Every structure is written in C-alpha cells, then in structure tokens.
C-alpha cells in the first residue's frame, strides 16, 4: 500500500509538472515579436527571434512529415532571411547579409517556378507572381547596395528587371479589374484600388533603382566607356517613372507619403557634371519644391523662416506644415540637396540675380530644416555661412554668426580628441584642415568689411 501511494504521488507530480509546462510559441507569435523588436531597434532580440523562426521553417520544409514543405513556408522563410540580411547589414556583417539575401532569392526562385506552372488567367496566381517578383527585386537591390562596381550594376539591373515585370503584371490586372468592375465595388486583395496602390509603391521602387544605377555611373563606374550615356538613360527613365508615380499616388499620398524627389536630385547632379548649370538648377529647384513646405516649417523653428505672416495665417498653415515636416526626405538627402544648390549658385551668372537669390534662400531653408533636426552637425553651420554669403547681396553678419559657431564646435571637438588618449591622428588632421578653412573665410570676411 505504501509503495502504491508513493507511485501515485510520483504520477501526480509528473502530471503537475507536464501540466505546468508552457507550450512552444507559434511561428506567427515569434514573427510578430521579431518584427516588434526590429521596430524598437532591439537588434539582438530581433536576430534571436528571426533565427528561431528560421529553424522552425527549415524544419517544416525539410522535416520527414512535411516532405519538401509548402510554398507558403518557403515564401515566409525567404522573407525572414531578408529581414535577417537587413539586420546583419546594419551591423556591418556584409558577408552574412549577402548570404541571407542569396538564400532568400533561391527560395523565391523555386517558388516562382511553382507559380509559373499554375499560371493562367487566374488573378490570384498573377498577383502572387507580381509579389514574388517584387520581393526578389528588393533582395537584388539590397545586394546592389552591398556591392561595388560591375557586381553592383548586375544586381541592380536584375532588380530593375524584376520590378518591370511586376509593373507589367499589375498594369494588366488593374486594367482587367477596371473593365470587370463596371461601377461595382470589388472586395479583397485584387480590387482595383489595392492594385493601383501596389503599382505606385512598385514604381517608386523602380525609380529608386534607376537612380542607384545612375549614381553608380557617377561614381564607381564613371570611367566606363559609355558611362555618361548609360547614366543619362537610367536617370531619364527614373524621371519619367517618378512623374507617372506622382500622378498616380494622389489617392494614396496620405498613406504612402509624398513621392521622394530622388530622380530630380540625381539628374541635377548629372547636369552639374556635364556643366549644364541651367538644367541642373531647374532640377534641384524642382527637388526643393517637393519638400519646400516641410523645410520652411522646420527652419522656422531656428529663426530662419522667410514668410512674414500674421498670427491667423500662421495658425492656418500649422497643420499642413506639421504633416509636411513629418514626411521630409532623410537628413542625408536634404544635405546633398543643399550642397547642389550652393554649387549651382556659385556657377550661375551674376546677371541672373533673381534666380541666384531664390536658390540661395532655398538652400538656407533646407539647411535650416537640418539645423532644427540636429544642431550638432558642424558641416550644416559651415554651409549656412556659405549660403548667406551666396545671397544677392551677401549677408556677412549672418555668415559670421554661423562660421564662428562652426569654429567653436571644431575647436571643442579637437580638444576632446587630443585628451581622449586614443590614436586619432587622422581625425585630428581633418579637423585642423576644416578649422583652417573656416578661419580663413572669417579672416577674408573681416578684411572685406574693413575695406567698405
């Protein structure tokens, strides 16, 4: 009896132990947590969760009870590998990122073959093909960013080809759905509105891909025999696609944001390299027009606003400006825009004062938006001084203010490096050179003021 009681107690204990064990999280839960970690910039946690999801998916694909796995599992695994590649690239693990992207491309390639076998007039199958091509394009574009020279060009061109295929499929499906609707509502992923939104997103990606090819010919491949013509062709395609996407994005702008002006900025850069200054100026001012409201709203926070409005007018614009400021292009893009503007002002004929003044003032607004976002970037203070001196007439008092601040910041940075105890000889040489350049400008400004 005693032994029987002991055995029952062991069984009850075992039962309680098993009952208290938490079930393994589902794949969907793991992926949701991984996405959240990625959004919160918790890279380590995101990598662990995506890694666990990868193991689950590979097990399902290659497990004995799953055969070769479903096409959906392969598509999900490709997406997870793409996310892991992005994270590795952000951490500097270029080789690891490249391997993940290539593995994902291989999986999507296999899925493409399966989809093509089923291809027919079925819209669902066509949309899967479009989504597959768009996913592969994104992976190839990432590979292009991680590569240089002809290797980067090859990856970018394949990405462009996949995006062109996506656009072609979506255009055919959208036309079909427009004919089918005849004024009736169509629900689901295949309705005309959803297809058109997907089309706009894909065209924006295609525009960016062509811009990347153009930039490649302006840098790594600038010595190639046909570099200029190839760059011209890529950027003309980018500008045409950008114009089309901008027209079509109207119903979706609140959701997708305004069309990025990358194509116009890159074209301005090309025109400057060709010494076609008037065309460069036209392109860069069109670039500015696409972000003017947001830049002026931001620059107003640091006292650089141009509009002298009354209180009521300012309040009326507040909501519009807030929205425009939140959708401004990234910091680096705006900085490059300001640099191109200042280069244009230095090359524009002095007889064309109105054009020169508008470009200089626009550069001030762009730089003001950057200063409002981060006032610790020395280059922005320096460029603001240059922008005020490029005005017609120049504004030496404002230029002095920004250059003197730049000198103070450079001096402090130099002192901190000197006392850091680290080997920063190269960095110190750069800072010393910058100090000398800004100091020289201040000295020239002083001499100019004395002669007046």
Morphology call: globular
SSE order, as H and E?
A: HHHHHHHHHHHHHHHHHHH
Helix tally equals 19
End-to-end C-alpha gap: 115 Å
Q: What percent of residues adopt helix (DSSP H or I)? A: over 70%
The counted number of beta strands is 0
- Write down the Rg: 28 Å
Mean pLDDT, all residues: 85
Biggest sheet architecture:
none
What structural class do helix, strand and pairing data support? mainly alpha
Q: What portion of the residues fall into strands of 2 or more residues?
A: under 5%
Uncertain ranges: 64-68, 117-121, 181-187
Word description of this protein:
It contains 19 helices and no strands. The chain is globular, with a radius of gyration of 28 Å. Helix content is 79%, strand content 0%. Helix 4 (71-90) packs antiparallel against helix 5, helix 8 (192-218) packs antiparallel against helix 9 (227-248) and helix 13 (292-300) crosses helix 16 (353-373). The model is unreliable at 64-68, 117-121 and 181-187 (pLDDT under 50). It has 452 residues and is an all-alpha fold.
Helices and strands, with pairings:
Blueprint: H1 2-19, H2 27-39, H3 43-62, H4 71-90, H5 94-118, H6 123-146, H7 149-181, H8 192-218, H9 227-248, H10 253-256, H11 262-273, H12 277-289, H13 292-300, H14 311-326, H15 331-347, H16 353-373, H17 378-389, H18 396-418, H19 425-451
